[in-house]
Amino acid sequence: MMMKKLLLITCISAAVSGCVPAVFVAGGAAGAVISSDNRNMQTISDDTNIAYQANNLIQADKELSTKAHITVTVFNGMALITGQAPNTALQQRPEQLIQPLKKIRKVYNQVVLAEPLGAFARSDDALITTNVKTRMLTTTDLKSSQFKVVTENRTVYIMGLTTRKQAEMAVGVARQSNGVKQVVKLIEYTD
Predict the structure, then answer these.
(1) How far apart are CA 188 and CA 19, in angstroms?
(2) In CATH, what number does 41-113 get?
(3) What is the mean pLDDT of each successive set of 10 residues along the chain, which is 191 residues long?
(4) Is the domain 118-191 a CATH 3.30.1340 member?
(5) Domain ranges within the chain, ordered by starting residue
(6) pTM listed for this prediction
(7) Rounded to whole angstroms, what are the CA distances from 59 to 45, 52, 53, 56?
(8) For the chain, which end, N or C, has fewer CB atoms within 10 Å of the first or last residue's CB respectively?
(9) Rounded to whole angstroms, how far apart are CA atoms 172 and 152?
């Protein structure tokens, strides 16, 4: 398993540097990720479609799109709403907008009452997410593709469908990563 992870990292690095055609890497990486993801292909497709629809609904709302920063992430039918809103009405509106979408089993509204984060804070969050994902990918015996990692204002949310042991390993990696203020576990267990 470690060898597969190292091969995947090598292929991605080579693609980024332009040494390997991106199509080859994307296809190979997708195959490696899907093969160890506990969700079936239909669920993976549904999650992608739900997230797309939900984020479009948020962007179509003029007040939400201009006064708040909201992102919806979906994993195994569970929708995670993160971001900042300046008042309670805008904090609750994203949940109201996406709740009617088909195939959403549960909504976690983690929008905080605050002014939207600036570009620097958002790029810092992206760096934390990349760091956590990379550390998960290179951790021996951790099936990193069973998790979705989202960072918002230095809080790392870990979504997944996995065993308790795998979940604890993933949370441990996130907690030990630089810049992480808090880790929130949104995991469904298979054991």
Answers:
(1) 39
(2) 3.30.1340
(3) 49 43 41 68 96 97 97 98 98 97 96 96 97 97 96 98 97 97 97 92
(4) yes
(5) 41-113, 118-191
(6) 0.81
(7) 21, 11, 10, 5
(8) C
(9) 18
